[in-house]
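Q: what sequence does this backbone want?
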Protein backbone atom coordinates (compact mmCIF):
# COMPACT_ATOMS: atom_id res chain seq x y z
CA UNK A 1 0.00 0.00 0.00
CA UNK A 2 1.50 3.37 -1.01
CA UNK A 3 2.32 5.86 1.71
CA UNK A 4 -0.39 8.48 2.20
CA UNK A 5 0.60 12.13 2.39
CA UNK A 6 -0.33 13.12 5.99
CA UNK A 7 -1.33 16.65 4.96
CA UNK A 8 -3.60 15.31 2.22
CA UNK A 9 -5.21 12.86 4.63
CA UNK A 10 -5.78 15.58 7.24
CA UNK A 11 -7.35 17.90 4.67
CA UNK A 12 -9.54 15.05 3.38
CA UNK A 13 -10.64 14.34 6.95
CA UNK A 14 -11.44 18.03 7.47
CA UNK A 15 -13.51 18.17 4.25
CA UNK A 16 -15.32 14.99 5.30
CA UNK A 17 -16.15 16.36 8.75
CA UNK A 18 -17.28 19.73 7.35
CA UNK A 19 -19.67 18.34 4.76
CA UNK A 20 -20.74 14.84 5.82
CA UNK A 21 -23.87 15.75 7.82
CA UNK A 22 -25.11 18.32 5.30
CA UNK A 23 -24.57 15.86 2.45
CA UNK A 24 -26.42 13.09 4.30
CA UNK A 25 -29.34 15.44 4.96
CA UNK A 26 -29.33 16.53 1.33
CA UNK A 27 -29.32 12.89 0.17
CA UNK A 28 -32.12 12.15 2.62
CA UNK A 29 -34.31 14.74 0.88
CA UNK A 30 -34.13 12.45 -2.18
CA UNK A 31 -33.98 8.94 -0.80
CA UNK A 32 -36.12 9.23 2.36
CA UNK A 33 -33.89 6.51 3.84
CA UNK A 34 -31.09 7.46 6.26
CA UNK A 35 -29.05 4.31 5.60
CA UNK A 36 -29.20 4.75 1.82
CA UNK A 37 -28.33 8.43 2.19
CA UNK A 38 -25.26 7.65 4.28
CA UNK A 39 -24.18 4.93 1.83
CA UNK A 40 -24.40 7.36 -1.08
CA UNK A 41 -22.38 10.04 0.72
CA UNK A 42 -19.75 7.54 1.83
CA UNK A 43 -19.43 6.21 -1.71
CA UNK A 44 -18.81 9.75 -2.98
CA UNK A 45 -16.03 10.27 -0.43
CA UNK A 46 -14.51 6.87 -1.19
CA UNK A 47 -14.48 7.67 -4.91
CA UNK A 48 -12.76 10.99 -4.24
CA UNK A 49 -10.13 9.33 -2.05
CA UNK A 50 -9.48 6.51 -4.49
CA UNK A 51 -9.69 8.29 -7.85
CA UNK A 52 -9.86 12.07 -7.49
CA UNK A 53 -7.45 13.10 -4.76
CA UNK A 54 -6.74 16.32 -6.65
CA UNK A 55 -10.33 17.39 -5.85
CA UNK A 56 -9.61 17.41 -2.11
CA UNK A 57 -7.83 20.77 -2.28
CA UNK A 58 -10.03 22.24 -5.02
CA UNK A 59 -12.01 25.37 -4.21
CA UNK A 60 -15.04 23.78 -5.85
CA UNK A 61 -15.05 20.69 -3.60
CA UNK A 62 -18.36 21.67 -1.96
CA UNK A 63 -20.04 22.11 -5.34
CA UNK A 64 -18.56 18.82 -6.55
CA UNK A 65 -19.73 16.94 -3.44
CA UNK A 66 -23.32 18.17 -3.61
CA UNK A 67 -23.50 17.54 -7.34
CA UNK A 68 -22.08 14.02 -6.97
CA UNK A 69 -24.47 13.20 -4.12
CA UNK A 70 -27.42 14.54 -6.11
CA UNK A 71 -26.47 12.53 -9.18
CA UNK A 72 -25.95 9.36 -7.14
CA UNK A 73 -29.31 9.85 -5.44
CA UNK A 74 -31.03 10.23 -8.79
CA UNK A 75 -29.28 7.11 -10.07
CA UNK A 76 -30.36 5.22 -6.95
CA UNK A 77 -33.95 6.39 -7.38
CA UNK A 78 -33.93 5.32 -11.03
CA UNK A 79 -32.73 1.91 -9.94
CA UNK A 80 -35.63 1.73 -7.53
CA UNK A 81 -37.97 3.05 -10.25
CA UNK A 82 -39.04 5.99 -8.09
CA UNK A 83 -39.55 9.64 -8.90
CA UNK A 84 -36.39 11.80 -8.94
CA UNK A 85 -37.95 14.41 -6.69
CA UNK A 86 -39.25 13.29 -3.35
CA UNK A 87 -41.43 15.33 -1.01
CA UNK A 88 -39.93 16.21 2.34
CA UNK A 89 -41.49 14.82 5.48
CA UNK A 90 -40.89 15.94 9.05
CA UNK A 91 -37.60 14.01 9.25
CA UNK A 92 -35.95 15.17 6.06
CA UNK A 93 -35.36 18.89 6.56
CA UNK A 94 -31.63 19.31 7.03
CA UNK A 95 -30.54 20.17 10.55
CA UNK A 96 -28.05 22.76 9.26
CA UNK A 97 -30.88 24.97 7.99
CA UNK A 98 -32.02 25.88 11.48
CA UNK A 99 -28.85 27.10 13.14
CA UNK A 100 -30.55 26.84 16.58
CA UNK A 101 -29.64 24.66 19.59
CA UNK A 102 -31.25 21.20 19.71
CA UNK A 103 -32.39 21.04 23.32
CA UNK A 104 -34.66 24.09 23.34
CA UNK A 105 -38.45 23.54 23.19
CA UNK A 106 -38.81 26.57 20.89
CA UNK A 107 -36.28 24.94 18.59
CA UNK A 108 -38.56 21.95 18.15
CA UNK A 109 -41.45 24.24 17.22
CA UNK A 110 -39.20 26.20 14.88
CA UNK A 111 -38.00 23.03 13.16
CA UNK A 112 -41.53 21.70 12.91
CA UNK A 113 -42.70 24.92 11.26
CA UNK A 114 -39.67 24.98 8.99
CA UNK A 115 -40.42 21.42 7.86
CA UNK A 116 -44.07 22.27 7.27
CA UNK A 117 -43.15 25.42 5.35
CA UNK A 118 -40.65 23.53 3.19
CA UNK A 119 -43.23 20.80 2.56
CA UNK A 120 -45.38 23.51 0.93
CA UNK A 121 -42.74 24.04 -1.77
CA UNK A 122 -43.07 22.31 -5.14
CA UNK A 123 -40.38 19.61 -5.56
CA UNK A 124 -38.14 21.48 -8.03
CA UNK A 125 -38.46 24.69 -6.05
CA UNK A 126 -37.53 22.82 -2.85
CA UNK A 127 -34.49 21.27 -4.53
CA UNK A 128 -33.22 24.65 -5.77
CA UNK A 129 -33.85 26.21 -2.36
CA UNK A 130 -31.96 23.42 -0.55
CA UNK A 131 -29.02 23.69 -2.93
CA UNK A 132 -28.90 27.42 -2.35
CA UNK A 133 -29.31 27.43 1.41
CA UNK A 134 -27.86 24.08 2.47
CA UNK A 135 -24.94 23.72 0.10
CA UNK A 136 -24.54 27.49 -0.29
CA UNK A 137 -24.02 27.13 -4.02
CA UNK A 138 -24.19 30.16 -6.25
CA UNK A 139 -27.12 30.53 -8.63
CA UNK A 140 -24.74 29.75 -11.51
CA UNK A 141 -23.54 26.55 -9.83
CA UNK A 142 -27.13 25.47 -9.18
CA UNK A 143 -28.10 26.25 -12.76
CA UNK A 144 -25.18 24.20 -14.09
CA UNK A 145 -25.89 21.33 -11.70
CA UNK A 146 -29.59 21.11 -12.59
CA UNK A 147 -29.17 22.06 -16.25
CA UNK A 148 -31.49 25.06 -15.96
CA UNK A 149 -30.97 28.78 -16.51
CA UNK A 150 -29.77 31.18 -13.82
CA UNK A 151 -33.03 33.09 -14.28
CA UNK A 152 -34.99 29.91 -13.46
CA UNK A 153 -32.92 29.51 -10.30
CA UNK A 154 -33.67 33.12 -9.33
CA UNK A 155 -37.37 32.56 -9.98
CA UNK A 156 -37.43 29.33 -7.96
CA UNK A 157 -35.64 30.96 -4.99
CA UNK A 158 -38.05 33.90 -5.13
CA UNK A 159 -41.01 31.53 -5.27
CA UNK A 160 -39.67 29.52 -2.32
CA UNK A 161 -39.14 32.63 -0.20
CA UNK A 162 -42.61 33.92 -1.06
CA UNK A 163 -44.24 30.61 -0.05
CA UNK A 164 -42.22 30.38 3.17
CA UNK A 165 -43.01 34.00 4.08
CA UNK A 166 -46.72 33.40 3.46
CA UNK A 167 -46.59 30.30 5.65
CA UNK A 168 -44.83 32.19 8.45
CA UNK A 169 -47.29 35.07 8.18
CA UNK A 170 -50.24 32.65 8.38
CA UNK A 171 -48.68 30.91 11.39
CA UNK A 172 -48.10 34.19 13.23
CA UNK A 173 -51.74 35.18 12.66
CA UNK A 174 -52.85 31.74 13.89
CA UNK A 175 -50.62 31.91 16.98
CA UNK A 176 -51.80 35.46 17.74
CA UNK A 177 -55.45 34.38 17.42
CA UNK A 178 -54.88 31.44 19.77
CA UNK A 179 -53.11 33.70 22.28
CA UNK A 180 -56.01 36.18 22.19
CA UNK A 181 -58.54 33.34 22.56
CA UNK A 182 -56.63 31.87 25.54
CA UNK A 183 -56.39 35.33 27.07
CA UNK A 184 -60.14 35.84 26.68
CA UNK A 185 -60.92 32.42 28.17
CA UNK A 186 -58.59 32.81 31.15
CA UNK A 187 -58.95 36.51 31.73
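A:
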Amino acid sequence: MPEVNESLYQHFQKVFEQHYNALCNYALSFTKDPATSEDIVQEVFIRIWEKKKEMIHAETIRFYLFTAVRNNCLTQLQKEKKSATVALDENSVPEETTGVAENNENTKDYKKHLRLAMAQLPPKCREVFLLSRLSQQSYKEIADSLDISVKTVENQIGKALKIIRAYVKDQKVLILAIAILINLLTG
